[in-house]
């Protein structure tokens, strides 16, 4: 079981215990908005935070809306840990907000994060470990770059690994350089 699954289970147990001991019911409120994701308007600083300004644009990977992600639904099992993950679309929208607010570095980070959502957690950890100094050869980093590009269509991340391979070579941080 992953750490997220463990966390969701723990929260569900604690909330179940609180609910049973205090007999309180939680109610969720949802905000309705007239903005549509298809209206063509760009998002900007006024739209941050996205989840509260435009909850209709934020969905779980399984398509659940924010108002469906409640403690009651977690306790009933209709929401699981996968529903608590952010989607590439939400990250791209957050990046659009950042870019239009004059924060291009944050936009680039959001774009990179959006690409990473398609990579299995175990493989992602292996890739990040490969970036640690003296852990990989230049070819291994270039192979990961190619994998990111071809298998996951992660162009920004692919370029990041290419840069790392070149920089590590210059700075003598490749496997065998120490």
From TrEMBL:
Question: Which key words tag this protein in UniProt?
Answer: Lyase
Residues annotated as transmembrane: none
Which parts of this chain are annotated as the region Disordered? 15-64
Which molecular-function annotations from GO does this UniProt entry contain? propanediol dehydratase activity
Major enzyme class: lyase
Q: Does the keyword Transmembrane helix apply?
A: no
Say if the entry is tagged with keyword Lyase. Answer: yes
* A Pfam family the protein falls into: Dehydratase_SU
Q: Where are stretches of biased composition, namely Low complexity?
A: 19-39
Which EC number(s) does the record attach to this protein?
Answer: 4.2.1.28
Which NCBIfam families does the entry link to? PRK15443.1-3
Protein name, entry field: Propanediol dehydratase small subunit
What is the organism field in this record?
Lentilactobacillus kosonis
């Amino acid at each position: 079981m992953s750490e997220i699954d463990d966390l969701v289970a723990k929260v569900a147990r604690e909330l179940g215990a609180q609910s049973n001991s205090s007999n309180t019911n939680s109610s969720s409120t949802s905000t309705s908005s007239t903005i549509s994701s298809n209206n063509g308007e760009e998002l900007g600083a006024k739209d941050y935070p996205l989840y509260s300004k435009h909850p209709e644009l934020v969905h779980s990977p399984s398509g659940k809306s924010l108002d469906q992600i409640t403690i009651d639904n977690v306790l009933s099992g209709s929401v699981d840990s996968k529903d608590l993950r952010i989607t590439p679309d939400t990250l791209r929208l957050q990046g659009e907000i950042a870019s239009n607010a004059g924060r291009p570095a944050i936009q680039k980070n959001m774009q990179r994060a959006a690409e990473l959502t398609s990579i299995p957690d175990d493989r992602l950890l292996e890739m990040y470990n490969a970036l640690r100094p003296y852990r990989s050869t230049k070819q291994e980093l270039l192979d990961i770059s190619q994998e990111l590009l071809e298998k996951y269509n992660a162009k920004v991340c692919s370029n990041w690994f290419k840069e790392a391979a070149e920089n590590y070579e210059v700075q003598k941080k490749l496997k065998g350089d120490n």
